[in-house]
Amino acid sequence: MRPSRRILLPAIAALFVATAFGAQGSVPAGYQTQSSTQLTPGVDHEALSLADPPQSVHVARVAPGAARVVAVSSHDAVARQGAAGELPSEMCRRVGCFAGINADFHDAAAGEPVGGVVSGGRMLRSPLPGRAQLIVTPDGRLQAGPLDWSGSVTASDGRTVAIGGVNVDPHPGDVILYTSAWGGTTPDGADTELIVRGAGGVGTIGATSPLDIVDVRSDAGPIPADGAVLAASGSASATLHELADLAAAGRISRTIQLRIRTAVDVVESVGGNPTVLRGGHPAFPDAGDDFTDARHARSLVGWNPAGEVVLVTVDTGHDGASGMSLAEAADLLTGLGATDGFGFDGGSATFVASGDVQNLPTDDPTSGAPAPTGGRELAPGHFERPAANALMVVPKLPDPPPSPSGSNGSGSGSGSGSGSGSKPGAPATTATTAPAKVMVAGGGPASSTGKLTAPATSAYPTALPATIDQILNNPSRPRRQSGKVTKDHKTKDGQGEVGADLLIPDWNSITDALTPEAVAAGDQPAELSLAGAATGHHGPRHDPVRMLLDLAAAGMIATILCGLQRARNASRPRPALWL
Length: 579
Fold this sequence. Notes:
By secondary structure, the protein is α+β, with helices and mostly antiparallel strands. Helix content is 18%, strand content 28%.
């Protein structure tokens, strides 16, 4: 097989599979499209209906890489201690979502979700052991399953205290970490609370966060916005008190190290129930109960290996909406092109797009029932009720700014090269730009036509030690002859132009002179006499377009030469064969 065919055939096959897959997931068999709206390129909202049984379905389709799928908590907190929650439409407007659905089941009285919450790579609430979570990985892929985790704080003497939960209700014998995401004061039930403070967000997964012990108390109280509270009872309480006493006596550092780890790389996660599809097959337990077999409103999310995501709600309690069993929900997700799916709180099934509710959620189908606390009536008998959290489609993060060209150059004084003295990952040095002057014979600046006055940054010292002047003005130093200075080659200040004898620096001597001690001494020459080259780029730049054109031209030339050679060989007279 020719090389070109070996390249083209897999590409054509992949395109065919993608096209067929998209066609399969367009509209499930038997459904009619009532409306279709593009919310943003790659994100569409579709309203679907089925006549028998009567069903009303809303779908948000998210193309691979078109947007992010994130967990949004009510009022950015995981517990509100009885305060009213936040409506999904309000959450959507607050974060600027394209579309979203309600997520985890929750305790309406306390406002706490049942499962765990991870947002932006921070653990806001630890998950229940063995309970499934929807998980979004750093590359934007979705998966469902238990989210195993561990947490600890370590003192300077090496002693480690395990953390049994993050922003959950107290449990005897466990140390619980409370951050500002708890949404109020710490709950009652702890014997000892260790108050800590630290820079940056507390609870970042996979990172080590230093926290400083500032106080210890025995009663519930506020959580510092720039820190956290470690609360415990029983034997764990004595451990926290011991850390506070040792730090106060100076026997250990006041700084302790917080570490939170998960078994799966995760940036977003919310709880729910159950896993509906796995690998193209139904995965929910065959419990035979009303939740599984009866038709109810459903809130679902589905995805496939291509990276496509669908957010789905199924209505009930009104004409044209009878709800679905879990088996029907699995069939619906499959018809939409999903191979995997996960379920959320169907009783609050709410679909929002661009800040507005699109479906008719049913909190209580009884005619004349009062609106739920904090709820909003959309139509008679249909209420949007507060949710503990939601799964929402939001814009992609902006691309990181490109690194400065030539950041590895040692002469520019910027970037991460050896000249700047910075380490990878260290914050960049704030630098002001100033022109650097190149000295020529006679002490004058080089002519502007010579393009020798490029900007330099203050990542290098803006004034060099006096020994540099001595080096540059050393009469025994070699010179490069580039022409004589005549009356016609004088600048306005009477000094020589670039055509004059240029002094060649002894770079080894300059390097020896640039010691920290010499720089700290503060001895300054009259002018900075190092050329400020363009930011660190050395040698020709690589233009991808030019390289492709060059390769194409080289291929054409090679083809022509081969053709000429074949023609020449064909035209040669062949020698006679002598018997």
